[in-house]
Amino acid sequence: MTSSEASAGKGRGRRIILWRHGQTAWNVERRFQGTTDVELTETGVAQARRAARLLVALKPDAIVASDLKRAANTAAELAALTDLDVTHDEALRETYAGAWQGLTHEEIIARYDAEYTAWKRGEPVRRGGGELETEVADRAAPVVLRHAEKLPQDGTLVVVSHGGTIRTTIGRLLALDSHNWESLGGLSNCCWSVLGEGARGWRLLEHNAGTLPEPVLGDDD
Hints:
Blueprint: H1 3-9, E1 15-20, H2 25-28, H3 42-55, E2 62-65, H4 69-82, E3 86-88, H5 105-111, H6 113-120, H7 133-149, E4 156-161, H8 163-173, E5 192-198, E6 201-209
Parallel strand pairs: 1-4, 2-3, 2-4
Antiparallel strand pairs: 1-5, 5-6
């Protein structure tokens, strides 16, 4: 094996599990949460506990989470089963969406239809005067990669975050054009996606995994 081949293969087998937080009341009401710090519902806590029992079987080596309560409390359920410490990072927060935050899906369409339609077409839009999707990826993806670099060979990192942030991070790590990030479907509460590292970089191995399909409630669309 040449030195270049050895370098290309370095770290192969590492996995990143991007896990969306459990249900909140605003998810059920289809309100855009963004950076608003909304608590888990009782159902959300139960979802986190159930998912944690599944994820522990994947033998995670590290856990990093958004510092918003819904993600931090979801991460805590896995930490309790693994005895791992959780590293909290505000760079993993959901997209800041300014005036959209707290509005229902229907209210956003009624008040900001042109902005919403442009975003759905894949145009760079500061929803509610907030962040661009590329700016979310700019802050979140480097955090994920930094923690992934610390993994041992065949190690597993669990990232507990939010629907929109996870989608943009996956898009960035897969080197997809930002116009196409919307083609990655949303994650149901407490479901996850798995990226695996190969010789050519990160690959999407699973998406919206964790249970039988359930409706996606309160994702960033």
